[in-house]
Amino acid sequence: MAKLFGPPEHIPCPEFNVNDFKQYQKDCEQFEKSLAEFCKEESPRCPDAGKIISFPVADGQAKYMVFKYSELIFIGTYDAYHVDDALIRGLRKADIVKKIKQRENISALFAKR
User: Fold this and answer.
1) pLDDT tens digit string along 71-92?
2) Residue 63 and residue 75 in contact, taking contact as beta carbons nearer than 8 Å
3) Which residue pairs from 99-102 have beta carbons closer than 8 angstroms and sit at least 24 positions apart in sequence?
4) By three-state DSSP, how is residue 35 classified?
5) In what order do the strands lie in the sheet with 60-68?
6) Mean pLDDT on 60-71
7) How many CA atoms lie less than 13 Å away from 6 in the CB half-sphere?
8) Among 14, 69, 98, 111, fewest CB within 10 Å belongs to which?
């Protein structure tokens, strides 16, 4: 069963910049990169630390980064969608690994185009 956390204080989530969306996108990419590095450094025994899983919500997605299989970090960028806490609590390691593989397969499929 997974627990949900926010990002560490030293890696703040970027604030939306309505006047410069391209800069906001760059800030979000840097945020995810820094958060992934943190997860990998702090959870060296988890091979999937730093990888993102997502769930469809409304017209977007709720994104979470794997810290450990039992601990996920909420990625509150863009629309900051989230899923119900009960869903997160019910995730098992196998579910998380499956979501990672799905994301990697979809990325590989569209990378060829």
Assistant:
1) 999 999 999 999 988 888 888 9
2) yes
3) 99/53, 99/54, 100/48, 100/51, 100/53, 100/66
4) helix
5) 3-5, 71-75, 60-68, 52-57
6) 95
7) 9
8) 111
C-alpha pair distances (Å), 13 with each of 6, 7, 27, 77, 96? 9, 7, 9, 7, 23
Whether the Cβ atoms of residue 54 and residue 76 lie closer than 8 Å to each other: no
Residue 20's contacts (CB-CB under 8 Å, 6 or more residues apart) are none
From the centroid of its chain, how far is CA 91? Answer: 15
Query: Which residues are paired to 5 by β-bridges?
Result: 73
Record the pTM.
Answer: 0.87
What span, in angstroms and rounded, lies between the C-alpha atoms of 80 and 78?
5
Angle CA 106–82–58, to nearest 5: 70
Nearest C-alpha neighbor of 71 from the set 54, 50, 56, 57: 50
